[in-house]
Amino acid sequence: MSRPLLLIVLAAAGLRLWRLGASSLTGDEAGCMYFGAFPLNRLVEVILASHEVHPPGFFALVHMWTAVGWNEAVVRFPSAVFGIGTVLAACWLFRAWDPEVALPATLLMAVGTYPIQASRELRMYSLLALLITVALGALYRWLRSGRIGWLAVFSGCTAVSFWIHYLSFFALPVAFSWVLACRPRWSLRWMVAVAVAGLPFCLWLPTMRLQAQSQNMLLRPPPGPAHVVELLGRMAVGDVGPVDSLWLTAMGAGALLLVGVALRRRPGEPERLALLWLAVPIGILFLLSVLTSARLFEFKYFSWAMPGLAWLLVRGLQRLGRAGPWVLGGIVVLNLINYWTAVAPAHRYGPDWRTAGKALRQWSGPEVLVLVHPSMMAQPLIYYGIQPQQMQPVDALDREELGRRVAGHRTVYLVTTPNHPFVIASRLEWMLDEELVREQAWELPARLPSGVIRLIRYRVGGP
Length: 463
Hints:
Layout: H1 3-17, H2 27-36, H3 43-49, H4 57-65, H5 72-97, H6 99-111, H7 113-119, H8 125-145, H9 148-162, H10 171-182, H11 188-198, H12 205-213, H13 225-237, H14 246-263, H15 269-291, H16 306-318, H17 323-343, H18 353-363, E1 368-373, H19 378-383, E2 391-393, H20 399-406, E3 411-416, H21 421-426, H22 428-435, E4 437-444, E5 453-459
Parallel strand pairs: 1-2, 1-3
Antiparallel strand pairs: 3-5, 4-5
Helix pairs in contact: 1-5, 1-6, 2-4, 5-6, 5-7, 5-8, 6-16, 6-17, 8-9, 8-10, 9-11, 10-15, 13-14, 14-16, 15-16, 16-17
């Protein structure tokens, strides 16, 4: 490993590991902890009973890793390691494409706020990015050398990725497009490798169908073309603003301009493959979200396509001539600013469930009812010490059911994330304001609307 690459890897590690446990677990992270706490032989049963949408592979990994420890830094550590591994895997592929571009493209992967965010949370996306990057790197080497060992690596990583997140399905069209671009004729070995990767997952398909039937996919509106540009901005400088952010859309327009510069004048094979890596998943998920009820286009879902964008940005910067290094430095500085102001500080953008749990522990008692809405937000409260019997998670509640639940209680607390689409649609807070007496409300603020937590105290009975 060269000295510049070593420094880049050390920077990647430092940015992913520094103050890793400072912020409290989010609802999604606590959900991973919740499912990971169950014995492996009960995992499928619990996933179905809880209407969970993800496959069991990552939860099984969490179950095994939590034997090491349960604090925030420990449980997030594997994601950070997977993120560092993705930087190395991307460099491995970039060097096969063009050693001159490899180092600056790896630098963008190392300091990019967007991939760092995926590496600092207990979620599937960091591992998914590593598996897909290794799979595509191995596929490229097979396409160039014909060595069957590389095809076996592709098949193995793809097979594992299916059990980690369903987004891995959309890496297959990328792989097929690479094969078409590099080998006009299909190979029997290639088809066998794809079949071997998918065959074990066929056992899970009936369960996956049941999961899909239990999901409400219409809570969010479909995306528009501007959201694709905004996505590129978030990938380039960080997912650090609310939806429809003008400045992130402007950053996306700049990134799109650089991609256009990279693709002019007869783009080479690496540019074409990088474009397919970036554009195929974005295009498919965008069309599915617009044309069907499946709202699959979310900004956080594309960290595994980041190497494609990093390559195209650097190639575009190279073609700017003398201005290229200065613009690259500006992108790096902007990412570091977003990291220090948005990612590293605890709870500036994300929810502070640690403080919410501390408050509820002080308020709990036999005459107190705690309603948690939506129900999935009970999971971080359980992690922070609220016993399940002390609260009642709710998703939908009519007036008659509310009357039964509050019977025998003098005080009701509502813990909610008011900007969650499901909360907005259900209007539970509005109903409680009509049926009970609101005494006091507190908000734990966050710069992102999704990070706001609201706690409301009601009195049961008249004034």
